[in-house]
Amino acid sequence: MILYLVVSLIFFIILLSWFDLIWDAKNNSVPGPFPLPLLGNALCLAVKPTEFLVVLGQLQEKYGKAVRLHLFSRRYVILFHPKYIEGVVTHSEIITKGRSYDFLRPWLGDGLLTSTGSRWRLHRKFLTPAFHFNILQNFLPVFFKNEKVLIENLRRYADGETDLNLFPIIALAALDNVTESIMGMSFNAQRDNESKYVKAIGELSSIVALRMRNAFMAEKAIFNLSTYKKNQDQALSIIHGHTRKVIETRREELKKANITTIAANSDIGIKNKYAFLDLLLLSEVDGNRISDEMIREEVDTFLFEGHDTTTSAISFILFCMSRHKEVQDKVFAEQKTIFKDNLNRDATYSELHQMKYLELVIKESLRLFPSVPLIERKITKDIEVAGLKFKKKTSVIIDIFHMQRLPEFYEDPMEFRPERFESINARNPFSWLAFSAGPRNCIGQKFAMIEMKVTLSGILKHFELLPSNKEPEFTADLILRTQYGVHIKLKPRRIL
Ligand code: HEM
C-alpha cells in the first residue's frame, strides 16, 4: 500500500512538473519543440560534439529565427537573426553571462569576461585605455619576434606534402604573444611546449571545453567526484601561482623605482613592456588600489580570452586561403606592394593598416568560422526585447555561427568571398558579430587584428598554402574548434 502511495506521489510530481513545462512552452512567445517529462528537450542536444552546431541549424530551419528549448527545467531561447540579436547585445540591462561561463570561474574568477554589474562596469572603464593604439604599438616587437619562431617551426613541415594540423602550433605562438604582452614576460611556449605552465593552460582549456559539451560533467556534484577535478586543481595551482609571482615581482619593481601613480610612470604606453600590468597595479577604483587577487583574475582572463580566440581565427584564415588560391595570390600581391623589394623586413604600424585586402580576408573567414560561435546571456528580470518576451532566468543563446550564414545578408553564404566586405553599406551591422557588439563587445579586437595581420603576413611571405584533403569537423564550446584539427600543406616561397 505504502509503495503504491509513494509511486503514485512520484508519478504525480513528475506529471505536475511536466504540465508546468508544457504550460511554460505554450505561453512562450517563442516557438520550439514539445517538452518531454523531466528532460524537457534535453534529448535534442544529447548528440556527439560534432553534431551540436548541426542540430542548432536544424532547429532554426524547423522553428524559425528564435527557438525556445527546455533543458531539464531550465528555459533557453536561441536567437539566429540580427533583428532579435541587436536588441539583446545592445541592451544595457542584459549584461550578465550565462551558465556556460561558470566553468571558467575557478580559473578566471570575476575577471572582465565573467563578471557583471558594477564590478564589470568599473573594470571595463579602467581597462579600456590598455587597448589604446599607443599601448598596442608596444606589442609589435613581441608579435614580430614570435612570428619568426613560428616560421621556423612551420618550416619543418613545408615539403608540399605533409598534412599539417595548424591548431596546436598556432596555439603556442598565440600563447607567447598574449603572455608577453599582457604579463610582460615570456614562457617561450613555442620553444618549450613541455613547460608545466604551458601544459597547465592546455589542460584547463580542455577541461572547460569538456564541461561545456558534457551535460554530466557540467553538474558540479559529478565533476567534483571525477579525476578531472583533481587535474583542474593541479593546473590551477600552477597557473595562479605563476600569475601571482609576476604581479608580485612587478609590484616590487615599481616600489623600488618609487613609481606610485600612472602619471608618475611617464613610460606607460611608450616602450613599456609592462603597460597592461602597470595600468592594473597603479590604477585606483573609488580611491582604492585594485587588490592583487582582482589583478590576478584580469591577467588570467586576458590570457585565456586572448589566446584561444586568435588561435581559432588564424587557423581558419590559413585554411580558407589554402583552399582559395586566387584569394591567397591577391593577399600576397598586396604584401609585395607594401614591402616593395624587401619582403624580409617587419611591417611598420602604418603598413599593417595598409593591409586592406588581408583585412577583408580576415573578416570573411571570421564570418564563416567565428572564433566565438555562440554567446550566452542570462535574463535577470522579465523583459521584452524586439517583440520577444523573456522571463527572468531565461538563458539567451546568440548563434553567431548560423546568423553569419544567412542568405538574407550574404549572397551564396557558403562561398568564401572576401570582396563582399568591400561595401559594408548593404549589410546590417549586426549581421557580422565576430567580435560581438554593444557594451560587452570584445575589448581586445584591435589587439587581435594587429596580431593576426603580423602572423598571417609573416606566414604568407614565407610559404605557399596548399589545400589538404582533410575536412574540419566542427565542435563548439566557447571557441569554434574541430574534432581532428584544421589541416593545410605548406611549400616554401622561392621569392625570399
Ligand atoms: C580573433 C580574435 C578574437 C575574437 C574573434 C574575439 C571575440 C570576442 C567575443 C565574441 C566576445 C564577446 C563574448 C561574450 O559576449 O561572451 C569577446 C569578449 C572579450 N574578449 Fe575577445 N576576441 C578575440 C580576441 C581577443 C583578444 C586578443 C583579447 C585580449 C587580449 C580579448 C579579450 C576579450 C575580453 C576580456 C572579453 C570580455 C569583454 C567584456 O565582457 O567586457 N579578445 N571577444
TrEMBL record:
Keywords: Heme, Iron, Metal-binding, Monooxygenase, Oxidoreductase
GO molecular function, one term: monooxygenase activity
Superkingdom, taxonomy of origin: Eukaryota
CDD domains, sorted: CYP4 (cd20628)
InterPro entries: Cyt_P450, Cyt_P450_CS, Cyt_P450_E_grp-I, Cyt_P450_sf, Cytochrome_P450_Monoox
A Pfam family this chain is assigned to: p450
Transmembrane segments: none
Cofactor field: heme
Gene3D superfamilies, sorted: Cytochrome P450 (1.10.630.10)
Binding site for heme: 442
Family: Belongs to the cytochrome P450 family.
Protein name: Cytochrome P450
Organism whose genome encodes this protein: Parnassius mnemosyne
